[in-house]
Amino acid sequence: MTPKRRIIPVFVPHLGCPNDCVFCNQRKISGRLSPATPETVHEAVAEARKAGVTGAELAFYGGSFTAIDRAEQEALLSAAAEHFATGEVAALRVSTRPDRITPEALALLKKYRVETVELGAQSMDDGVLRLSGRGHTAEATRGAAKMVKESGFSLILQMMTGLPGDSGEESIYTARELAALAPEGVRIYPAVILRDTPLYELWRRGKYREHTVEDAVSLCARIVPVFEAAGVKIIRLGLNPSDELSGGEAAGGAYHPALGEMVYSRIWRGKAEAALSSLVGAESVTLGVKASRVSVMTGQKRCNVEYLRDKFGLKELKIRPAEVPDGEIAVLERH
Ligand code: SF4
Question: Which of 22, 27, 64 maximizes ligand 1 atoms within 8 Å of its Cβ, making it the mutation to test the pocket?
Fold first, then answer.
């Protein structure tokens, strides 16, 4: 995998998906979506060309690439492969469901030089998977991940937090289980309540407790270190902000355009709490972090500084750049 490679995204709405994941609105909005065709692929590459992007990775997103009709898969893959010769596309990536990984499906992806396969694991707890209508088990994810890696693809795993039946501990367990599958990267998507979904109906009827932004921030601040300790790169945290989501499509749940930043800020807050708890009787403290971490340590609208000042009864708390190893906090001054 080349992490810095530019991505040309092509969304493949799975209009005929037989599953009914509670958080997904694809079936309900299918009338508003048009299927992806080879022309969609050529247009996406042309857009990238206009923007001066070359050597990019073309990514078929949408959740279930290998579950669509095989002829349709081939048409999309061969349209993308036409752009290998010009150098505009250097690699392909698809995302799909764990239970739609078979040796035949992977052989087709290999034929068209797909490099990366993303699997929507979502949870490794079978109860959560069942309540979320995923239609596959944790064991299916283990088997698919193994097959993908053994076939020589880069593996990316996606997980969700805040699904029905998940108290938070199931998400921590999921993170540990996914890390054990040694993917090249993970995406973490806290549940967002989209309109026109079964989750929206459950929430409206009081049968689902919303996974708030605060719930997601505090839980993901525990999940991120699990992946970091295992050396697994976190390539996305939270849904990509969009006009639709910000404009009301997200009726509730953990949607915030700066969710990732808030999670990392929370992790730094925890480190500062540990550093400050040993300074008994201090009234004024200056903490030092690597220059590039000052902003995340301070928090949005100085929220970490305010929180820590209140919690430790400090008159003043300053955060300063310092020559310290990345990830560490030094107490520069205390009075
Ligand atoms: S998220 Fe679930 S329901 Fe939606 S397209 Fe994917 S498999 Fe189908």
Answer: 64
The structure tokens listed for 335 are 């009075």
Distance CA 56, CA 89 (A): 5
Tens of pLDDT along 245-270? 888 899 999 999 999 999 999 999 99
Closest to 149 (Cα-Cα) out of 174, 177, 124, 184:
184
Look at ligand 1, atom 7, and give the residue with the nearest C-alpha.
19
Closest-CA residue, ligand 1 atom 4, reads 24
Which residues of the chain, if any, have pLDDT below 70? 1-4, 15-16, 27-33, 63
Whole domain around residue 312: which residue ranges?
Answer: 276-334
How many domains are contained in the chain? Answer: 2
Residues with CB under 6 A from ligand 1: 14, 17, 19-21, 24, 26, 63-64, 97
Looking at residue 157, which CATH number applies to its domain?
A: 3.20.20.70
Q: What is the pLDDT of residues 118-171, one digit of tens each?
A: 999 999 999 999 999 999 999 999 999 999 999 999 999 999 999 999 999 999
Indicate whether 265 belongs to any domain: no
Query: Residue written as tokens 């999921």?
Result: 174
